[in-house]
Amino acid sequence: LAADLKKMSSEVNFRPDLIFFTGDLAFGSVSHDLMSDQYQAVRKVIDSVRRAYSPEVPERDVYLVPGNHDVDRGEITPEQTEWLRSPKRQLAEILSAMESQTKQWRAWMERFSPYRTFLRGSGLAHLSPEDPHLIWADARELAGIRVGIIGLNSAWSAADDGDKAKLWCGFEWQIATLRQRMGPVDLAFALIHHPGNWFTAFEDPSGFRLLRQHVPIILHGHEHQDHVEIDGDGSLVLSAGASYESSWMKNAYSFGELDLSASRVRLWLREWDAAGRGWVARNIAGRTKDGVYTLDWKRPVEKLAEME
User: Fold this and answer.
1) Looking at the whole model, is its pTM more than 0.90?
2) Is residue 129 pLDDT above 90, yes or no?
C-alpha cells in the first residue's frame, strides 16, 4: 500500500492535505493477539502511509474513527448486549444515556480502552481520546477554505457478528454536538464506520438522512465494498474498501481531489490484483477512465452556508 501511494504520488503529482481511516484499525480481541500489540502494528501502518509522501504528512492531518473490531469484545457482557437489543428499547433511552453519561453508558465505553490508549500514544490528540463518547470535531484552513471534519462513533453498541440492523448510534445527539463543536465552515467531511443499513429501525434510514443534510461529504467503511454515490441533495458518500491480507472482498483504497472553483471531484480508485501481487486501477464501466472517477459537484459551499 505504501509503495503504491508513493508511486501514484509521483505519477499524478499528488500529496494529500488529509488522510482518513474509517475504522477497524485492529482485528479485535477475537484473534490470538492482544489488542495493545495490534495497535502497535496499526501505528506502523499509519506511519508508512504518512511517510509515503514527500514531505511526509503530519500526524495532525490524520483522522480516524473506531469500527466494530476496535471494540474489545472480551469486555462485552451478555447483559449489555441483551439490553441493547431488547425489542422494548426506545431511541429516547439511548439518547438519554448518551447525554447524561450514565453508569451504563460508561460501561459500554470501557470496551474502547485499548483504542483510547492507542490514540493517546500516537500523536492523535486532535481526535479527543478523553472524550466520553469518543467523538470529535475539527476545523482547518486549507487553500483558503475553512474545512470542518467530524468523527462519529457508530461502533459503541457493537457486540458480535450479528450486529446488522441492531446497532444504535444516537445520530441526532452526535450530529448536533459535533456541528456545534465544529463551528462555521465552508466545507465539511464526516467520518463514520458503519453505513446506514446497520442500525435499528429507529435510526435506519433516518440517521444517514440527517447526516447527509448536515454534511456534504460522508466517508464510511465496514462492508469492504468501495463505492461512490451522490444523492438527490448533492451529498457525496464514499464507501471504503478494505486493505488487509486475507480479506474475503477485493482489497481497495482511493484518494481524491476536490476543486471547488471548478465544482469538480476527481477520485483515483485502486484495487489489489492478487494474480500480479500489486495495485492496479479499478475501473467502473461508463464511470471511470484509467481508474479516475470525475464528478461534477456543486453542492458544498452554498449548502453549508444555508444551514448556518
Assistant:
1) yes
2) yes
